Amino acid sequence: MARVRRVGKRWWVGAVGLLALCVAAEVQPAYSQQSVAVRAGLVKGPLPADDPTAAAWATASVSEFPMSPQVHWPVRITEVTAKSVKVRGLHDGTTVAIMLEYSDPSEDPDDAAALEFMVGDTKAHFAHGQPMAQVEGGPVNIWYWKNKDGKGSDLGAKGFGTLKPHSHQDVKAKGVYQAGVWKVVFSRPLNTEHVAEDTQFKPGEFGSIAFAVWDGKKMESGQPKEKGSEKAISSWWYFRADAPPDYSPYMYALLAVGLALGFEMALVRRLKKGSGA
Amino acid sequence: MGGVLIRPIILTVCIYLFLKFIVPVLPHSAPLPSSLIFLYLMLVMSGAVLFATLSGESKDAFFQPILRFLTGESGGALSSARYLVLALFPILVGWQTYGSTASSDAPPGENRTIHPAPPGEYTGLSNPVPKTPENIMYGKGLYASRCAPCHGNFDGKGFAAAGFTPPPANFKDPTTIAMLQESYLFWRIKKGGVGLPVEGMPWKTAMPRWELEMSDEDIWKVIMGEYDGAGQKPRTWDESE
């Protein structure tokens, strides 16, 4: 009988243990998730927009995305050099900088990289905003860099064969090649006047981003290994320029704790009064 | 003293463990979303409270231990548990409030329809190409050169598949071509990713528009080769009715 009573008094220990197990089962380790988004953190100091080797880039969170050979439309390619790209982002409230980092065994004048964004609220196909058969898709904005040009280009497209430079060139880019790795930084003001052609970044809101990389190594034919549509590509992922810190959720949480505590105390007091009566 | 409460607590925990760990491993099942598990647990707990309060006597037996626990009359080891519960409740409320007011770091959800309805003209088409060994072999040959880079050995693991999301379809999976009619495949191969309707957003698929590079007859042969290579059979009108 005494044994039964002891077990009865300890039932809650088991219940709390089981509850803890249940909570633990709900918690997923963050590192097990594949990258799905690039987050550009807000920096207070100068933005390293023209220096891919700046120490500030070490503070940016890194996302990595797999790359595939472009097989969606001719001319296709079946083997590409870049298997993945690491992407970092930073912004200072007025300008955004995005750095691509990827392996390439050789530095070549025709090495190139690009970022692609949707423009406005209309969704676009990731392949140059190719027109959709059943619905109206939107255009895409492409930021392009080529080693031998040494600068960024601001391009637009709405389908294959429609790629052309914008009349306004708002994008800057700089690449640095070190020890078999390209680091290319693209930068542009978060917002521009050309809302119909340029992607616009609203801090705190997610938009779409895609990547392309060309290995410009000269082949025996004299042509670059990867050129034009023969490139390494990704499909759409997400991009967000972080909003300034918002501390109001902490205030709301504190208020809620206070209210819950007050409710709890009133309830216990009322119950004690009731049981004593 | 908590004997009346032990059973509903054990029942709730057991049902949680069943929903969380057993249901996903059942045949033709899948992990349940947390919101659905929460809903089921709420139903279980509501049922337990209803059952326990059917009569005045059972109601007292159910609530008295809770009342004694909350007022600290239970004493003993339960006093520590009482302080723990009284401390945890405001913390949980604060945590929930923070979670519902703080901006999420997660990208927006994608409600992509995996198999959107095809345009009417593709519904119910039957494969006009005779199912001969020669035609199947021809279709497999086309598959090897056009489709295998992404779809691999009919398993969706081609060498070009790594960077694409959603991943290329695994035709050996019973939830892909085995549950589709040949006419559906004809539409998807012919029109590719750009043929998708609005519910197919966000249009990440890299599926080419093969009508620009293959005849209709060749597409039908590829379909035969796909089914044969994956060891699947197309869904037919008879089965779907």
Describe it for me?
The complex is a heterodimer of chains A (277) and B (241). Chain A has 277 residues and is of the alpha+beta class. Chain A has one domain (34-241): Immunoglobulin-like. Helix content of chain A is 19%, strand content 30%. Chain A has helices at residues 2-9, 11-26, 248-276; strands spanning 37-42, 63-66, 68-69, 84-91, 95-103, 112-118, 140-146, 151-157, 164-165, 172-178, 181-189, 206-214, 232-233, 237-241. In chain A, strands 1, 2, 3, 4, 5, 6, 7, 8, 9, 10, 11, 12, 13 and 14 form a 14-stranded mixed sheet that branches. In chain A, strand 4 and strand 5 (95-103) form a beta hairpin. Chain B has 241 residues and is an all-alpha fold. Chain B folds into 2 domains: 3-101, no CATH class; 120-240, Cytochrome Bc1 Complex, Chain D, domain 2 (Orthogonal Bundle). Chain B has 8 helices and no strands. Chain B has helices at 3-22, 34-52, 56-71, 77-101, 133-151, 182-191, 216-230, 237-240. In chain B, helix 6 packs across helix 7. The interface between A and B is large, with 73 and 64 residues.
What's the gist of this structure?
With 277 residues, chain A is α+β, with helices and mostly antiparallel strands.
Task: Considering the chains and any ligands shown, give keywords for the structure.
heterodimer; A: 277 residues; Immunoglobulin-like; elongated; disordered N terminus; B: 241 residues; mainly alpha; Cytochrome Bc1 Complex, Chain D, domain 2; 2 domains
How many domains of chain B, as an integer?
2
**Largest beta-sheet details of chain A:** 14 strands, mixed
Q: Could you say what the CATH architecture of the largest domain in chain B is? A: Orthogonal Bundle
Number of helices of chain B: 8
Based on the structure given, which CATH architecture of chain A is correct?
A: Sandwich
Number of E-state strands of chain B:
0
Largest interface: A-B, 73 and 64 residues
Helix and strand composition category of chain A:
alpha+beta
Radius of gyration of chain A: 27 Å
Number of domains of chain A: 1
Query: Helix- and strand-based class of chain B?
Result: mainly alpha
Query: How would you describe the oligomerization state of the chains in this entry?
Result: heterodimer
The first-level CATH class name of chain A: Mainly Beta
How much of the polypeptide of chain A forms β-strand, as a percent range?
A: 25-35%
How widely separated are the two ends of chain B? 59 Å
| Portion in helices of chain A | 10-25%
Spatial separation of the terminal alpha carbons of chain A: 33 Å
- The topology string of helices and strands of chain A comes to HHEEEEEEEEEEEEEEH
CATH class of the largest domain in chain B: Mainly Alpha
